[in-house]
Amino acid sequence: MTEKRDFQANHADTLDRDLGRLSTLEQATAYVSRPMAGKGVALVFMVLAALLASIAFGGSDNTMVIVIASAFGAYMALNIGANDVANNMGPAVGANALTMGGAIAIAAIFESAGAMLAGGDVVGTIAKGIVAPEAMSDVNVFIWAMMAALLSSALWVNLATWIGAPVSTTHSVVGGVMGAGIAAAGFGAVAWPTMGKIAASWVISPLLGGIIAAAFLWFIKSRIVYQEDKIAAARRWVPVLVGIMAGSFSAYLAMKGLKKVVDIDFTTALAIGGALGVVFWAVMIPVVKRQSKGLENRNKSLKVLFGVPLIVSAALLSFAHGANDVANAVGPLAAIVEASRTGTFGDGFGIPLWVMLIGAFGISFGLFLFGPKLIRIVGSQITKLNPMRAYCVALSAAITVIVASWLGLPVSSTHIAVGAVFGVGFFREWDFERRLKRARMSMPERPSLPREERRRRKLVRRSHFLTIAAAWVITVPAAAVLSAIVFLGIQAMVG
For residue range 173-194, what is the model confidence (pLDDT) as tens digits? Predict the structure, then answer.
């Protein structure tokens, strides 16, 4: 009888181990199949984009060229969704104001709306004057150059997403156009003053974004967080901050999002922003007063007052990004379509609706399938964010673009947003050290922390800082080299 019980126990243990192995295998299979399923859906989308192009240009002599270019454009749009959109949604997710699913849904809706309603600006002479059109020998050379630029920029953004570095897709396209232009017509074909301005934006964008975000965080801490009656201070200043946000986004969207409806100059956009800012400030006074009733006088209560404004700002950032950056990303595809249709490539041209559809839907699919990785990095792995810090990041992004437009500086929305996250993190480090020093002066007997422990308590991850900074610096040259190689490869195959 004892032997039978031992046999049953051993048999049960063996069965448990076998079931455990099966369970582990199922989990591993699910883990492996998720990225495979994502790649499968992405491939299906690229095929559908190619089919859409074949329907739109079924009787054209260059149908196959446009079909291939459309697949490349869809690939680029997927990579924009996977990488670029994380900068808008990452802070809100990191601050726990939005779930990952909610962020993806809001971003997909507002990115697509921005692209379709306010996108499609006229694409100037070969990607905004980076390469002189007269340098291209004929229309076929131009088409191959734009194909190389489109594919190389998409490959570079894909690589950056894989290593976990948020990069500028616009800069990737610029690098791709430059590299293909050099391979096609030599170094003299490139407008180097324009490239110099773009290189300057590598420093200007994140620095300006970081300084403005840090300044707003200092304001919130000094006027609200460090006050004795935090709730009373919040009732006074939160409506002001929401008014500034509303005014900033109104001015930004008036400049960037209404171009297709009416041409608005900078002064008029500022006037619109100022008027709407005052309106929202007045509206938010009773709203914040009602929200703050019954809240305890502590920092955790303040997060409630910043939650909804943060979600709204993230949605508006996505709309503005869709309106502005999608056109830049699908610009080479639009250039190929126009050159194939007309046989010329010197004048400006609009982006066709079906090309904008590829861009808008591709961004949504890319965000849904591959975006969570970069959202987590931007939102929580660079530095810890709460609604107040994330609000400073979103506000900084809008104000920095307006200031840059006023100064005539080319800036990257990616660099601004990520620079703002770093600015908030480095300000927190400075503020922590300042308060620690003040506490040590008031209590001299308190032992100081060892240097190793102080280094361990740094509030910004240096590894992410170095990785992202390096990726920013090499984006244009890396995309350029890739593009030149792809162009020479295409030329060798067709020539």
Answer: 888 989 998 998 888 888 888 7
